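Lab manual, section 2.4: Encoding a predicted structure.

Procedure: take the sequence of the chain (218 residues), apply the prediction step described in section 2.3, and record the output as structure tokens. A sample record is shown.
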Amino acid sequence: MDSQEVSIPLPDATLGGELNVLPGTRSLVIFAHGSGSSRHSSRNQSVARALRAAGLGTLLFDLLTAEEEQSEMHTRHLRFDIPFLAERLVVVTKWVRNQSACRDLNVGYFGASTGAAAALVAAAELPEIVRAVVSRGGRPDLAEAVLDRVKAPTLLIVGAADTPVIPLNEQAYAKLRCEKALRLVVDASHLFEEPGTLEIVAELAGEWLIKHLGAVSH
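Recorded output:
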């Protein structure tokens, strides 16, 4: 199937999403964006295109409704509410697994910034479903309480120039008990805006996700 706009019903809200399931694919990567972002994030969209080119399905969705996003801009009360964001991700994961096109797919997460913490908490809650996690410029330290329960192989990608976030990732890496890797991208800052750095992220993420999820079956 081609790109499909979806509405994801939750008990307290309806979230918009963009689902791409490729013919013959074995896997689906669910994106959890960072604070102040949405499914339209240019960086996550760029990585998603690269993953689809490598044979992986993708789901990008909004963690917050438009109304919550408006309120959040002024109060910033939700962006660090990791349990809230993780629970949203858990519900969305269960919803997409119930869609006929996705029922048998291996599921992985790609989380950015605070979305990476939400992805790790959700992965700890869904060990039978989530088979891999990738964090881009993430704050895995915000998931500290569950890091030792994460079973999914986890890749932490950090910009080598993102000096405040590197030690937070190193501390989280030390607490993970699953298969894991930590990669620094040379010359990259927190948002990976430097030329070529986001392409490196996509390549590292693609290799990790294909290794642990599989891609298109032939």
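Check your result against the sample. The longest helix spans residues 197-213.
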